[in-house]
Automatic annotation (TrEMBL):
Taxonomy, superkingdom: Bacteria
PROSITE patterns assigned to the protein according to its UniProt record, in alphabetical order: SUCCINYL_COA_LIG_2
Organism: Thermovibrio ammonificans (strain DSM 15698 / JCM 12110 / HB-1)
Listed pathway(s): Carbohydrate metabolism; tricarboxylic acid cycle; isocitrate from oxaloacetate: step 1/2
A cellular component annotation (GO) from this entry: cytosol
The keyword Disulfide bond appears for this protein: no
The keyword Translocase is assigned to this record: no
Name of the featured protein: ATP-citrate lyase/succinyl-CoA ligase
Subcellular locations according to the entry: Cytoplasm
Main location: cytoplasm
Length: 616
C-alpha cells in the first residue's frame, strides 16, 4: 500500500544499506526485532566484496542478506526498498547519493558521512528536491520513525531506545541537527510526555539535504503528530524558514523551538561549535536572534535549554486535557538477545568448546608456539628442529637432540627421482597438476615399505628388547608369528657391500652425542642376523631413525607409555613426511621448470598377460 507523502518510513519500509558496516546493520535489525517488524534491510551494497551475502541476527535466529556490487544492481533486485542508508565514506558518499537519485524506486537517502564538500552537498540537495526525493544528512545519524524504522545507529543502544520510548510511537514530531541532541531530546520527551512519532537529525552541515522546515511541514500533515519540537543551533539561516512558515500560518500545531549556542555571545568574536554549520557569521545567525524571531512568530520558546522539559510537559498535558492525545498502551518488549561474546565477557553465559589446542595460541598480539612468541623464536635463533620440538612434542629440546632432528630432516630430504614417492610426484606434475596435488601424491606413497617404516621399526625393536628376545628369536618371531618383514630392515639397493652413508652418519652422531644408544645397539645385533641371510637386509635409514628416536625420547625423560603413544600417533614417520616433502617439492618444481609433457609408461616395460576367459 502506498505511503502518504508526509510519511518517509513505516513498519513495512525496506532499505538498502550501502557499505558492509556490520555493527550498524545489526543495530537496525535489532531494532526491527525489538519493535516486532520484519527485517528492514533487504540488501547491502559493497563494491569490493567478493561475497554474495552476509549473515546477521534477527533476534536469536540468523538471516542472510544479499550483497551487491552497486546500488543500481541492489535496487533492481529489490524494488520494494525505497530507502538507501548511505554509510559510504565522505569520499564516496556523494557519488553513491548521485547514483541513488537516478533510481526510481529509491525515495529517501540518509547520509552519515561528514566532510562532503559544501558545493556537492548543495548540488545533491537541489537534485533531490527536483526529483521529489528526500535526503537526510549528510553528517547525521539519521532518525527514527518510532516503532517502525530506524536509520543506522540513531537512538543509541537498544536499552536507550526502550528508555527513550523510541520503540513505539508517541505524539511528538522531533527535528534536531545533531544525533547526540536527538538522543537527549527523545529522552526528555519520553520522560515528560509520551515520546515521539518520528525524529529526524538533519545533520550538522551548513547545507543539509533536507532542513528543519521540510520535516516540520511533514509533521504538520501527519495526524499522528500532535506537537513538534525543533532544536536549532547557532549559525545559518534555516530557522528563519521556520519563522516564515509560522508567520504564513503553514505550521499550526504547537511548536516548541530552541536554538542552542546562546552561550556564544559570552565568548566574543566568532565561535565555531562542533558542527560545520554552527558558526554565527552575522547577528541574524546568533542563537539569541533566532530564538527571538521564533518566539515572535508564535513558536513556544523557553527561557533556556533547562526549561525545555517543563515546556514539553506543559504542552503535552494541555493537549491531553483537550483530548487530543490519548493514553498509550505500552507494548511488550521482547528480551533483547545479548551477543555471546559480550555476555561471556560479563560472565553471564558459558558453553563447552568443540576443540582443544595445547600447542599454539594466536589470540594475543602475536602467535606463540607452546608459549614462545614467534618473534622470540626468530630473535633467539630457534632452529627448525626447535620449532618441531615445541609444536610436535611441547618441549624445548637440548642441543644434542635438536641437532639430531635437524640431521634427520636433512638426511631424508631426498633420495633421487627413482624412489616411489618422488616418481609419483613427478608423474602427477607431468599430468599438469598443481604443486599441492603433486606433493600429496608423493606423500601418499609413504608407508610400510617406503619411508613410513620408522614407526614400525621403533615399535617392534622396542617391543622385542622389552620382552627380552634375543636377536635371532626376534627375527624368527617376525617371520613366524607376525608373518611380515621387520620394519627398518632391508633395502632395494643398499647392502653390506654398498652401505648406506646416511645410516653411518646417524649412527656416528648418536654414538658421539646420545646419552644412551641402547635400542640402536640391539638393532645392530638384529642386523647381524638378517645380513647373514642376505646382504641387503641391513638396518636401513627408517630403521636407524626409528630406534634412535626411541633412544632419544628415553634420554629426554619421556616415559615408555608416552613413547608408545607417540609411535601409535605416527609421530616418528612424521619426520620422514616433513623431510621428504622438501625433496618432492624440488622434483615437482623441476618438472615445471623443464615443462615436461604428460608421462606415458612404455608398453615394452609392461608384461601384458590378458587372456579372454573361456566362454566369453
Ligand atoms: N625382514 C625380514 N626379511 C626380509 C625383509 C625384512 N624387512 N625384507 C626382505 N626380506 C627378505 C624377504 O622375505 C625375502 O626373503 P626370501 O628370499 O627368503 O624369500 C628377501 O629378503 C627379499 O625380499 P624382497 O621383498 O625381494 O626384498 P627387497 O629388496 O625388494 O625389499 C624392502 C626391500 C621393500 C625395503 C624390504 O626390505 C622391506 O619391506 N623392508 C621393510 C620395510 C622397510 O624398512 N622399508 C623402508 C626402506 S628405507 C626407505 O624407504 C627410506
Ligand atoms: C629413500 O630414502 O627414499 C630410499 O632409502 C628408498 C630407496 O629406494 O632408495
Amino acid at each position: 500500500m502506498a505511503r502518504p507523502e508526509y510519511l518517509l518510513f513505516d513498519r513495512d519500509t525496506k532499505a538498502i544499506f550501502w557499505n558492509l558496516n556490520r555493527n550498524a546493520i545489526q543495530r537496525m535489525l535489532d531494532y526491527d526485532y525489538l519493535v516486532g517488524r520484519s527485517p528492514s534491510i533487504v540488501a547491502i551494497v559493497a563494491p569490493t566484496q567478493s561475497r554474495k551475502f552476509d549473515k546477521f541476527f534477527y533476534g536469536t535466529e540468523e538471516i542472510m542478506i544479499p550483497i551487491y556490487r552497486s546500488t543500481t544492481e541492489a535496487a533492481e533486485a529489490h524494488p520494494e526498498a525505497d530507502v538507501l542508508v548511505n554509510f559510504a565514506s565522505f569520499r564516496t558518499a556523494y557519488d553513491v547519493a548521485r547514483e541513488a537519485l537516478n533510481i526510481p524506486t529509491i525515495r529517501t537517502i540518509a547520509i552519515t558521512a561528514e566532510g562532503i564538500p559544501e558545493r556537492l552537498a548543495r548540488d545533491m540537495a537541489a537534485r533531490a528536491k527536483q526529483e521529489g526525493k528526500w535526503i537526510i544528512g549528510p553528517a547525521t545519524v539519521g532518525g527514527i520513525a518510532a516503532g517502525a524504522f530506524r536509520i543506522g545507529n540513531a537512538g543509541g543502544t537498544l536499552e536507550n531506545i526502550v528508555k527513550s520510548k523510541l520503540h513505539r510511537p508517541g505524539s511528538c514530531g522531533l527535528v534536531t541537527r545533531s544525533g547526540g541532541l536527538f538522543n537527549e531530546l527523545s529522552n526528555i520527551i519520553a520522560r515528560n510526555a509520551d515520546g515521539i512519532v518520528e525524529g529526524i537529525a538533519i545533520g550538522g552541515d551548513r547545507f543539509p539535504g533536507s532542513d528543519f522546515l521540510d520535516h516540520l511541514l511533514r509533521f504538520q500533515k501527519n495526524p499522528a503528530v500532535k506537537y513538534m519540537v525543533m532544536l536549532g543551533e547557532v549559525g545559518g539561516e534555516l530557522e528563519y524558514m521556520v519563522v516564515e512558515a509560522l508567520e504564513k500560518g503553514l505550521i499550526t500545531k504547537p511548536l516548541i523551538a530552541w536554538c542552542i549556542g546562546t552561550i556564544a555571545k559570552h565568548f566574543g568574536g566568532e565561535v565555531q561549535f562542533g558542527h560545520a554549520g554552527a558558526k554565527a557569521g552575522a547577528d541574524r545567525e546568533t542563537a539569541d536572534a533566532k530564538n527571538r524571531a521564533l518566539r515572535e512568530a508564535g513558536a513556544l520558546v523557553p527561557e533556556s535549554f533547562n526549561d525545555i522539559p517543563d515546556l514539553i510537559r506543559k504542552v503535552y498535558e494541555d493537549l491531553k486535557a483537550k483530548g487530543e492525545i490519548g493514553e498509550i498502551e505500552e507494548p511488550e518488549v521482547p528480551p533483547i538477545p545479548e551477543d555471546y561474546d559480550k555476555a561471556r565477557r560479563a560472565g553471564k553465559v558459558r558453553r563447552p568448546t568443540h576443540f582443544i589446542c595445547t600447542i599454539s595460541d594466536d589470540r594475543g598480539e602475536e602467535a606463540t608456539y607452546c608459549g614462545v612468541p614467534i618473534s622470540e623464536v626468530v630473535e633467539k635463533g630457534y632452529s627448525i628442529a626447535d620449532v618441531i620440538g615445541l609444536l610436535w612434542f611441547k618441549r624445548k629440546f637440548p642441543k644434542w637432540a635438536s641437532d639430531f632432528i635437524d640431521m634427520v630432516i636433512k638426511i631424508v630430504a631426498d633420495h633421487g627421482p627413482a624412489v616411489s614417492g618422488a616418481h609419483n610426484a613427478k608423474v602427477t606434475a607431468r599430468a599438469g597438476k598443481d604443486l599441492i596435488s603433486s606433493l600429496v601424491t608423493g606423500l601418499l606413497t609413504i608407508g610400510p615399505r617406503f619411508g613410513g617404516a620408522i614407526d614400525g621399526a621403533a615399535k617392534y625393536f622396542k617391543m622385542a628388547k622389552e620382552k627380552g628376545m634375543d636377536p635371532f628369536e626376534f627375527v624368527e618371531y617376525m617371520k613366524k608369528v607376525e608373518k611380515k618383514p621387520i620394519p627398518g630392515i632391508g633395502h632395494r639397493i643398499k647392502s653390506t657391500k654398498n652401505p648406506d652413508k646416511r645410516v653411518e652418519l646417524l649412527k656416528n652422531y648418536a654414538k658421539e652425542n646420545f646419552p644412551s644408544t641402547e635400542l640402536l645397539d640391539y638393532a645392530l645385533e638384529v642386523e647381524k642376523v638378517t645380513t647373514a641371510k642376505k646382504e641387503n637386509l641391513i638396518l636401513n635409514v627408517d630403521g636407524t631413525i626409528g630406534v634412535l628416536l626411541v633412544d632419544m625420547f628415553r634420554s629426554l625423560g619421556f616415559s615408555e607409555a608416552e613413547i608408545d603413544e607417540l609411535i601409535e600417533a605416527g609421530a616418528f614417520n612424521a619426520f620422514f613426511v616433513l623431510g621428504r616433502s622438501i625433496g618432492f617439492i624440488g622434483h615437482i618444481l623441476d618438472e615445471k621448470r623443464l615443462a615436461m609433457p604428460l608421462y606415458r609408461h612404455p608398453w615394452d616395460d609392461i608384461l601384458y598377460d590378458v587372456k579372454r576367459p573361456e566362454g566369453v
